[in-house]
Model the fold of this input.
Amino acid sequence: MDTLLSVFVGVGLSAACGFRVFVPLLVMSIASLTGQMTLSPEFEWIGTYPALAAFAIATIFEIAAYYIPWVDNLLDTIAIPAAAVAGTIVMASAVSEMSPFLKWALAVIVGGGVAGTIQGFTTITRIASTATTGGLGNPVVSTVEAGGSLLMSILAIAVPVLAVIAAAAIIIFAFRKIYSWIAGKNRLQPHHE
Done:
């Protein structure tokens, strides 16, 4: 049961990485330092004061940068791979009672996949916001993303089962929106015969 719960924690934290890369790492560091989370032995460095300081500074800069017009779109170009890497790391750090091969396969496929998928959806949302509002709506999108990352991070540690359900709901919603957007674009294009 502990292994399953640690996987749920990892999935929830990976989903949070899809919204913001450093917020889940900051929350994990705080949770580890306060005894709310046990990290995998090779990732215990996340629960140190130097790591806490680094994650806090990185979180502040990341969140602030998303409020600067056009910088937010630039950040999105590197955010998908960064989110996938962060999702992989948080998944691997949350799961300890597992063989290294299975742990890393799970971390890359599930952790990186969940984070990358959610980040991809947020990137599309920001592009749509920029296109429809000229970037004026992007601070609202940024606020929702930062809040979503914080909420998912806390939920992943406090109530992992709910975090997994929320992550699944977000991914299903994202796939539906992306599918309807693609289907809508295909209907608008003229068909050549």
In short: The longest helix spans residues 100-133. Residues 2-188 form one domain. The helical segments are 2-19, 22-33, 49-65, 71-94, 100-133, 138-158, 160-188.
